[in-house]
Amino acid sequence: MHSLQALFGGTFDPIHYGHLKPVEILANQIGLQRVTIMPNNVPPHRPQPEASAAQRKAMLELAIADKPLFHLDERELRRNSPSYTAQTLQAWRSEQGPERPLAFIIGQDSLLSFPGWYQYQTILDNSHLIVCRRPGYPLAMKEEQHQQWLEQHLTYQAEDLHTLPAGKIYLAETPWFDISATLIRQRLQQRLPCDEMLPAAVLHYIQQQGLYQKSSN
Ligand SMILES: Nc1ncnc2c1ncn2[C@@H]1O[C@H](COP(=O)(O)OP(=O)(O)OP(=O)(O)O)[C@@H](O)[C@H]1O
Ligand SMILES: O=C(O)c1ccc[n+]([C@@H]2O[C@H](COP(=O)([O-])O)[C@@H](O)[C@H]2O)c1
Questions:
Q1: pLDDT exceeding 90 applies to what percent of the chain?
Q2: pLDDT tens sequence across 190-206
C-alpha cells in the first residue's frame, strides 16, 4: 500500500505556530509520517509577500530544523508565475502515479475561499483536502452550490484519506490557534512582543534581517 503524501502550501510570511501546531496535531491524529511544506512564490489571490522568497525559505528552514515531521519542497518557489494549486497538484499526480493517496492541507479560511481558486474543481481529482480549524471563520460555505459541493465530497473517516487516492474533504478536529501572519507583521511593526506566536529562531531571523518593520497592512 502507498503511504499518504500530505502537502501543506502557504505564503508563510512568516511561518508561525498557527501553521505548525495544528499540522503536528493532525499528523498524530490521522497518522501522517511526513508533511511536505510548500511555500509559494507568487500567491495567486492576495497581496504579494513582504519577505522575499529566500527569506521565507530561510524562516521555514529555521522553523522545521528540529521537526523531522516536516520537509520543504521548493517547486513553487522556483516558478515566477502564479502558484496555482491545481497546476502544482496535477504535476504531483503525474509524478506519483494514479494510486498514491495525496492530500492538500489548508486552514478553514482557505476552504471558504476555495471555490474562487483557479480550476478548483480539478483539485479534488488529484488530491484530498484536509481542513484544519481556525478561529473566526464559519464552517459553512457562503453559497448554497458550494455547500452542496462540500457535502458531496465530505468524509468523516480519516481512513479514506489513506486508502483512496483523491476526492475527499476531511474536516480535522484540530484545536484553534488564534495566530495569523498579518497579526505578527502588525505587532512587529508596533514593536509588540510575538514570542508566543512563532519559533524563537524565526523571530531572531526577522529581527536580524529587519523584516516587517514597516508593515504594508
Ligand atoms: N492559525 C491558523 N490555524 C489554522 N490554519 C492556519 C492558521 N494560519 C494559517 N493557516 C493556514 O495555513 C495556510 C497558509 O497560510 P498563510 O501562509 O497565508 O498564513 P496566514 O497567517 O493566513 O497569513 P496572512 O495573515 O498573511 O494572510 C492556509 O491554508 C491557512 O488557512
Ligand atoms: O490556486 C489558487 O488559485 C490558489 C488561491 C489561493 C491560495 N492558493 C494556495 O493555497 C495555499 C494557502 O494560501 P495562502 O494565500 O493562505 O497562503 C497556498 O499554497 C496558495 O498557493 C491557491
A1: 94
A2: 999 999 999 999 999 99
Measure the N-to-C terminal CA separation of the chain; round to a whole number of Å: 47
Would you say the CB of residue 84 lies under 6 angstroms from ligand 2? yes
Cβ-based burial of 43 (10 A; exposed 0-12, middle 13-18, buried ≥19): middle
Q: What is the 124 CA–ligand 2 centroid distance (Å)?
A: 15
Q: Is 14 in the pocket of ligand 2 (CB under 6 A)?
A: no
pLDDT for 217 beyond 90: no
Q: What is the pLDDT of residues 37-85, one digit of tens each?
A: 999 999 998 889 999 999 999 999 999 999 999 999 999 999 999 999 9
Cβ neighbours of residue 200 closer than 8 Å, sequence gap 6 or more: none
CA distances (Å), 55 to each of 86, 141, 173, 202, in order? 25, 34, 32, 10
Q: Which of 40, 42, 85, 134 best tests ligand 1's pocket when mutated (most atoms within 8 Å of CB)?
A: 134
Q: Are 130 and 23 in contact (CB under 8 A)?
A: no
147 CA → ligand 1 middle, Å: 22
Separation of CA 15 and ligand 1 centre (Å): 9
Shortest-distance atom of ligand 1 to CA 18? 1
Cα–ligand 1 centroid distance for 93 (angstroms): 24
